[in-house]
Amino acid sequence: xxxxxxxxxxxxxxxxxxxxxxxxxxxxxxxxxxxxxxxxxxxxxxxxxxxxxxxxxxxxxxxxxxxxxxxxxxxxxxxxxxxxxxxxxxxxxxxxxxxxxxxxxxxxxxxxxxxxxxxxxxxxxxxxxxxxxxxxxxxxxxxxxxxxxxxxxxxxxxxxxxxxxxxxxxxxxxxxxxxxxxx
Length: 183
Fold this sequence. Notes:
The chain has four helices and seven strands; from the N terminus they run βαββαβαβαββ. It has helices at 11-14, 43-58, 72-81, 137-152, and strands spanning 7-8, 17-18, 40-41, 62-67, 102-108, 156-158, 161-166. It is globular and about 40 Å long.
């Protein structure tokens, strides 16, 4: 495991809204997974997040973060709930969240409301995939706006989750152990 220091993300310093879903029972696992939670990323991903937050502001929006750095122990919990590599990384291979280079986000409008993305966060179904042409035009537009912001900031997407973005070559980063998030 790596000893890379994580950069702490706050609403004040990054101009984002933080709602770490796994610190509440309203998530994929159906229980509180993070007993202690601080939003954090690898410094390389944090630099891209700053860009993305600025691009969102330029569009009159705010980024909302659902998850960022995730301990390997949390990944084991999610894999036990849904062992489908299309949606949850096998903990034996490690999650890019556990490398600190992935985050889950959406966009808020000027009134602070989430844009309609067609499904909720962590809604593991076909309609959560990118490149759906069977969703309402507004949903497609909202997803493309988020995609454009995140790609322009230096992240890449994965096909199965509209909310998930990570650094290119994420697997080249080491797994991180940190007590910023405790399971």
